[in-house]
C-alpha cells in the first residue's frame, strides 16, 4: 500500500469530548467472498468496485481492514475523564496463538503515545465481546499472569452480550472458540472491574452526553456508543458495518454476524437515524469517519467521508 494514501489516525472534537482513533492494524485481511456469502461473485465484485482500493485489494479478493478503538477524553466537573471504546486484539495471551499476523499489537503503545497512562483510564466500553475488541483489556505480566490493563477502570458491557459469551466460554475448553472471554473478560470480573449494563430501554447513560445503545445482531448484545454535545452526534458503531457496501444495501450482513437478519434490521435503523440527524459514524474496521444520506425514492444510503472534523494527531 502507498503510505501517502494511507489514512492516518485522527482526532475530532464533540462539545467537551475529544475523540481519537487508536489504531491497531490496517492490512489486506479477510477473504471478501467468505465475509459476504450473501452476494454472488459478480455482485460482490461490483459492490467492492464501487468503493475502490481504500477497502479492498485491487483484485477484490481480500478486504483491506483496519482495526481500531476510540479514546474519548474530556473534563467533567473540573475532573479529567478518560474513556475507551474497544481495546482491539491486544498483546499475546497464554492459551492461544498470537491474535495478529505479526504477533505484536501496537495498540497499547499507541494509546500511551497519545498521552494516556493506563491507570488514568476511567471507563472501558466494549461494543461486543469478539476477540478483536477485548484483547487489550488484559496484559500478560513478566510472571506470565494476565492482569487487567486498566486497573482503575470500570469495564462496561451489555448484560445481553456478556451472558451468552460467558456461557459459551464456561461450556467450552480453554483454547477453544471463547478463549478470549477467558483471557480478556473473566479477569476483569475476578478483579471486580466489570459492570454489566441492562439496556432495558434500549440505552444506558455512561457519562455526560455519552450513551450505550443496544444494536443487536452482529452479536446478541452488540451495542453502539453515542456522543452528543457538539454540532452533530457521533456514533461509535463497533461492527455494525465492515465495508461501505453495507451502507449501499443494509440487508447485507457479514458471515461473522450471529443473527444476520437482526443485524440487517439494526443496520437499517441506525443508518436511517444517522441520515436524519447528520451523525458522524466511527466504525471499528473502517479507516475514516463518514456520514450517510438516504437515497430519494430508493432503498439504501449514500455516504461521504467526513474529513472536515479531522485533525491529525501523532500516536
Ligand atoms: Zn470486529
> What global shape is seen?
globular
CATH topology: Metallo-beta-lactamase, Chain A
Give the termini distance in whole angstroms.
20 Å
Secondary-structure element pattern, one letter each: EEHHEEHEHEEEHHHEEEEEHHEEEE
**Which percent range describes the beta-strand content?**
25-35%
- Number of DSSP-assigned strands: 17
State the domain count. 1
The helicity comes to 10-25%
CATH superfamily (homologous) name: Ribonuclease Z/Hydroxyacylglutathione hydrolase-like
Determine the structural class based on helices, strands and strand pairing. Answer: alpha+beta
CATH class: Alpha Beta
**What's the CATH architecture?**
4-Layer Sandwich
Unreliable stretches: 1-7
Lateral strand order in the biggest sheet: 9-8-5-4-3-2-1-17
Averaging pLDDT over every residue, what do you get?
91
What's the helix count? Answer: 9
Give the radius of gyration.
19 Å
Bound molecules: zinc ion
For the report, how would you describe the main beta sheet? 8 strands, mixed
Amino acid at each position: 500500500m502507498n503510505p501517502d494514501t494511507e489514512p492516518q489516525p485522527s482526532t475530532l472534537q464533540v462539545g467537551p469530548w475529544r475523540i481519537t482513533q487508536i489504531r491497531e492494524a490496517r492490512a489486506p485481511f479477510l477473504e471478501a467472498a467468505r465475509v459476504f456469502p450473501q452476494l454472488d461473485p459478480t455482485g460482490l465484485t461490483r459492490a467492492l468496485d464501487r468503493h475502490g482500493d481504500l477497502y479492498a485489494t485491487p483484485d477484490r479478493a481480500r478486504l483491506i481492514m483496519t482495526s481500531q478503538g476510540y479514546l474519548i477524553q474530556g473534563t467533567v466537573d473540573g475532573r479529567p475523564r478518560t474513556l475507551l471504546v474497544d481495546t482491539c486484539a491486544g498483546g499475546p495471551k497464554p492459551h492461544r496463538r498470537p491474535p495478529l499476523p505479526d504477533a505484536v499489537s501496537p495498540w497499547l503503545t499507541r494509546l500511551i503515545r497519545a498521552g494516556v497512562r493506563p491507570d488514568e483510564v476511567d471507563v472501558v466500553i466494549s461494543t461486543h465481546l469478539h476477540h478483536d475488541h477485548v484483547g487489550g483489556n488484559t496484559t500478560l505480566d513478566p510472571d506470565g499472569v494476565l492482569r487487567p490493563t486498566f486497573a482503575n477502570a470500570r469495564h462496561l458491557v451489555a448484560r445481553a452480550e456478556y451472558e451468552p459469551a460467558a456461557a459459551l466460554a464456561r461450556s467450552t475448553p480453554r483454547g477453544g472458540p471463547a478463549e478470549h472471554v477467558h483471557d480478556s473478560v473473566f479477569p476483569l470480573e475476578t478483579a471486580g472491574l466489570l459492570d454489566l449494563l441492562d439496556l432495558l430501554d434500549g440505552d444506558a447513560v455512561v457519562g455526560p452526553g455519552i450513551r450505550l445503545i443496544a444494536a443487536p445482531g452482529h452479536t446478541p448484545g452488540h451495542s453502539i456508543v453515542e456522543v452528543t454535545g457538539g454540532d452533530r452526534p457521533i456514533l461509535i458503531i463497533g461492527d455494525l458495518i465492515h465495508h461501505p457496501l453495507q451502507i449501499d444495501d443494509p440487508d447485507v450482513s457479514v458471515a461473522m454476524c450471529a443473527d444476520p437478519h437482526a443485524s440487517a434490521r439494526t443496520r437499517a435503523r441506525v443508518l436511517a437515524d444517522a441520515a436524519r440527524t447528520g451523525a458522524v459514524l466511527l466504525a471499528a474496521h473502517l479507516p475514516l469517519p463518514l456520514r450517510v444520506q438516504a437515497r430519494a425514492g430508493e432503498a439504501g444510503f449514500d455516504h461521504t467521508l467526513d474529513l472536515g472534523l479531522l485533525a491529525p494527531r501523532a500516536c
